[in-house]
Specification:
Elements (H helix, E strand, L loop, with lengths): L5 H4 L7 E2 L10 H17 L4 H19 L7 E4 L2 H9 L9 E5 L5 H4 L4 H5 L2 E5 L7 H7 L5 E7 L11 H10 L3 E5 L18 E5 L11 E5 L44 H17 L1 H21 L3 E2 L12 E4 L5 H10 L2 E2 L1 E3 L2 E4 L7 H18 L1
Parallel strand pairs: 1-11, 3-4, 3-5, 5-6, 6-7
Antiparallel strand pairs: 2-8, 7-8, 9-10, 10-13, 12-13
Helix pairs in contact: 2-9, 3-9, 7-8, 10-12, 11-12
Length: 382
């Protein structure tokens, strides 16, 4: 594999400035080539190379284990999306009436909707905890726990505010108090280092289409080895059995690995795409990626403040993620967002402001051009 070349890997149309990696990220060239190669191979050879597809599947599990610092690829399942993974957890735990689930206020719907029906089905109460600003949000979650608390589920990074929580602090508390810890990591995997072992997460889920720069429809799900046999299965099929090729066996058993959570045929095209994207991320290195994103966000924050904007997202290094959310006083944030989108600045309207989310490869000239468009919008809308 040749050395990473940002101009080659990300030949974005010059008419756009892509600052929406917290939404849907672009594919690197190698990811496009991997998918095209897979499609062309299928067109010419059908499934003649199916064994190589299985090898790609296992390679992706290993890359997922590397990205999460998981102890083994056997704890990695390849699912459709974060919502499927969280639903697998929510309806696989042996709940008892009166159990409680705690989530922070302001979570993305994926980490709220899956827990809400538990009350009617199992008598499990969902508690939504407001996180204080300018203080210790982790302590607020911990103080909300009581003897009935069975699970805490949260986003590693909030999709709107960009708040990055101290997962090690919360996870250690959960571990010491026998509380299950579930992390929606979609806004951090591929942007920030993640260590599933140091944070004691029982479950971690993330789609590939944001910071991992891969297609929609394939996600990483890590289940701690001790929990793999404890999660009740609600989906069944040929792919989740221990002897996957023994089609005539009547005495089948679920796989002992996290593959037991993959009920049917895998998304081979998505697997080839995510594999290529994670190979790029591994090549560049997570520490390098995180530092470049931090630098880009710091630049944007400084320039936006100079333009008279208010930064709504977290600016402390311990809390900063890849998200910069801002607004301009006396101007509708939605109007500002619409103006920027029409000007070719891909961003989002979130948390009462405009959300920028640059990635490691984002050119400095793109950041400068985005700031110029913000200034133009302010001038025209004020």
């Amino acid at each position: 594999m040749s050395a990473y070349n940002p101009e080659k890997e990300f030949p974005l149309d010059p008419s756009i400035i892509h600052l929406n990696h917290a939404g849907v990220g672009p594919w690197p060239r190698r990811t496009v080539e991997a998918i095209c190669s897979f499609a062309n191979e299928n067109m010419a050879m059908g499934s003649a190379n199916y064994m190589a597809w299985l090898e790609a599947e296992q390679s992706l599990r290993k890359l997922g284990a590397w990205l999460l610092n998981a102890p083994s690829a056997d704890t990695i399942a390849l699912l459709k999306n974060t919502s499927e993974a969280l639903s697998l957890v929510a309806y696989g735990i042996d709940w008892e009436p009166g159990d409680e689930v705690i989530i922070p206020e302001g979570e993305f719907p994926s980490n709220r909707i899956v827990w809400e029906p538990l009350e009617e089905r199992f008598g499990v109460h969902l508690r939504v905890i407001a996180l204080p600003s300018n203080s210790n949000p982790e302590q607020a979650l911990i103080q909300a726990c009581n003897p009935r608390t069975r699970l805490i589920s949260l986003s590693s990074v909030n999709y709107a505010t960009g708040l990055r929580l101290d997962l090690d602090f919360i996870g250690t508390y959960c571990h010491d108090n026998e509380i299950l810890f579930c992390v929606d990591a979609i806004q951090s995997l591929g942007a920030l280092p993640f260590d599933v072992q140091s944070c004691h997460a029982d479950f971690v889920a993330a789609d590939g289409h944001k910071w991992m720069l891969a297609p929609e429809g394939v996600a990483l799900f890590n289940c701690a080895a001790s929990n793999i046999p404890r999660i009740k299965l609600n989906q069944f099929g040929w792919h989740m059995v221990e002897e996957m090729g023994a089609f005539d066996r009547k005495d089948w058993e679920p796989a002992t690995s996290a593959r037991r959570f993959e009920c049917g045929s895998p998304n081979n095209m998505g697997i080839h795409g995510l594999k290529a994207s994670l190979e790029l991320i591994q090549e560049v290195g997570m520490d390098t990626i995180a530092e470049r994103i931090r630098s880009h966000c710091l630049f944007l924050e400084t320039a936006l403040l100079k333009s008279g904007c208010e930064i709504l997202s977290e600016t402390d290094d311990a809390r900063r993620s890849g998200i910069v959310c801002f607004r301009y006083p006396d101007i509708s944030s939605e109007a500002l967002y619409q103006h920027l989108m029409k000007s070719g600045v891909l961003c989002a309207y979130r948390g009462g402001g405009v959300r920028f989310s640059p990635h490691f490869y984002t050119p400095q000239q793109s950041l400068l051009a985005a700031i110029d468009q913000v200034k133009t919008a302010i001038h025209q809308l004020a």
